[in-house]
């Protein structure tokens, strides 16, 4: 197989706050192959957005990428090592801020955010903004840029694009605005698009249409995607491969079908249990019990052990390694869970956690008292 287009290795990003160091992204590794749509999924606060902004080198104070390597088509977007003295060392290969801005962002890697109004200026027409973006990034004349812009609007399913070209963002519906953003992302023919929950604010029907559109465009242009979402339904619909994040770490990675049908990690299991499925009624849904702990002070051992229905005493002590546990029918299937370590999980005592009945019973009672 050819080299992946994007390779993230042991990426770490921290926020230095008054309360302490937030380990928002704590040593994640994953790859994206050409033409592949890779999901990054997890609950709120798992570190998905920090991970994507780290890759694009858009983390702001008090945050900082403190380690890891991100390689995009052989170029080091990030190459940082922490010396034994605690000093961060950037390798000489790591791109400068200017190289990131001029060569990478927009042209090579485009990013789509949840809120299209962040990317669209309300005082300029949609077409004008798209045209200007294309003109700046693609070395074409203003007329050519306008033509490309109209073509792109048509491509993403905006009806009567010549007319809508002169509309302002507020004259578009949420779904239409998101289509414009996709047009903008595609306009410079990037090889990779990073999308951070771009359909979360849309209603389900519109979301479905946008996902169909993305799938179609991805096949046509062979663009690679990193798709951030908290919704496994979205993952099932569009992703080829999935990374599941929990508290700054990727705890499972597999082909989408294997993740759903050969689930290895109890957290992924719990996530799957919490989404509506056609064969389930709403009251059969099982939200994940408990809350994700703070990334300032993550639990010892396996970080999920405080909420894990399968936790045993060893889970509190042993930090699981991220390892390939694929069976012969799978391409690769990574997981970090103590169950797959040779540390006596089977003989260890079960641990009382937020997921076990005794504990959640207590929670309900406590909540009742407080009201
Ligand atoms: N500017 C900041 N200062 C301090 N902590 C931050 C900052 N930005 C993010 N964090 C912390 O980093 C962690 C990861 O946040 P992130 O936004 O990446 O989560 P997420 O998975 O994208 O969640 P969501 O689904 O809600 O978007 C959280 O604990 C968050 O509180
Ligand atoms: Ni986010």
Automatic annotation (TrEMBL):
First-tier enzyme category under EC: translocase
Localisation: Cell membrane
Which reaction is this enzyme known to catalyze? Ni(2+)(out) + ATP + H2O = Ni(2+)(in) + ADP + phosphate + H(+)
Bilayer topology annotation: Peripheral membrane protein
Keywords from the UniProt entry: ATP-binding, Cell membrane, Ion transport, Membrane, Nucleotide-binding, Translocase, Transport
So what EC number does this one have? 7.2.2.11
The record's Gene Ontology biological-process terms are: peptide transport
- Give the top-rank taxon of the lineage listed in the UniProt record for this protein: Archaea
Instruction: Name any one Pfam family assigned in the record.
Output: ABC_tran
Q: Which residues form the ABC transporter domain?
A: 6-272
PROSITE patterns associated with the record: ABC_TRANSPORTER_1 (PS00211), ABC_TRANSPORTER_2 (PS50893)
CDD domains named in the record? ABC_NikE_OppD_transporters
InterPro entries noted in UniProt: AAA+_ATPase, ABC_Ni/Peptide_Import, ABC_transporter-like_ATP-bd, ABC_transporter-like_CS, Oligopep_ABC_C, P-loop_NTPase
This protein's GO CC annotations: plasma membrane
GO-annotated molecular function: ABC-type nickel transporter activity; ATP binding; ATP hydrolysis activity
Major location category of this protein: membrane
Q: Which NCBIfam families match?
A: oligo_HPY
Quaternary structure note: The complex is composed of two ATP-binding proteins (NikD and NikE), two transmembrane proteins (NikB and NikC) and a solute-binding protein (NikA).
Q: What is this protein called?
A: Nickel import system ATP-binding protein NikD
This protein's species is Halogeometricum borinquense
Supply the source organism's classification: Archaea, Methanobacteriati, Methanobacteriota, Stenosarchaea group, Halobacteria
């Amino acid at each position: 197989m050819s080299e992946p287009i994007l390779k993230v290795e042991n990426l770490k990003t921290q926020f230095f706050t008054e309360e302490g160091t937030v380990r928002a992204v704590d040593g994640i590794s994953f790859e994206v192959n050409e033409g592949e749509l890779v999901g990054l999924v997890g609950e709120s606060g798992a570190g998905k957005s920090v991970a994507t902004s780290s890759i694009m080198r858009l983390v702001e104070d008090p945050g900082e990428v403190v380690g890891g390597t991100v390689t995009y088509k052989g170029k080091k977007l990030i190459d940082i090592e922490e010396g034994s003295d605690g000093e961060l060392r950037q390798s000489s290969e790591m791109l400068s801020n200017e190289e990131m801005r001029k060569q990478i962002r927009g042209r090579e890697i485009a990013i789509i955010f949840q809120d299209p109004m962040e990317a669209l200026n309300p005082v300029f027409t949609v077409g004008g903004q798209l045209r200007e973006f294309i003109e700046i990034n693609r070395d074409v004349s203003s007329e050519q840029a306008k033509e490309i812009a109209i073509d792109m609007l048509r491509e993403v399913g905006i009806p009567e694009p010549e007319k809508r070209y002169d509309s302002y963002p507020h004259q578009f519906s949420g779904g239409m605005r998101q289509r414009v953003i996709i047009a903008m992302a595609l306009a410079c023919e990037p090889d990779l698009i990073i999308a951070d929950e771009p359909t979360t604010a849309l209603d389900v029907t519109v979301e479905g249409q946008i996902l169909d559109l993305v799938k179609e465009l991805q096949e046509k242009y062979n663009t690679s995607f990193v798709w951030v979402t908290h919704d496994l339904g979205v993952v099932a619909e569009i992703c080829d491969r999935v990374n599941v994040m929990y508290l700054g770490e990727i705890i499972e990675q597999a082909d989408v079908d294997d993740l759903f049908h050969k689930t290895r990690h109890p957290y992924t299991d719990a996530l799957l249990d919490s989404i509506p499925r056609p064969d389930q009624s709403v009251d059969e849904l099982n939200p994940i019990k408990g809350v994700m702990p703070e990334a300032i002070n993550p639990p010892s051992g396996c970080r999920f052990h405080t909420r894990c229905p399968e936790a045993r005493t060893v889970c509190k002590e042993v930090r699981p390694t991220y390892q390939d546990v694929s069976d012969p029918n799978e391409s690769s299937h990574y997981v970090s869970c103590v169950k797959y370590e040779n540390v006596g999980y089977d003989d260890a005592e079960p641990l009382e956690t937020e997921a076990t009945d005794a504990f959640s019973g207590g929670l309900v009672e406590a909540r009742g008292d407080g009201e």
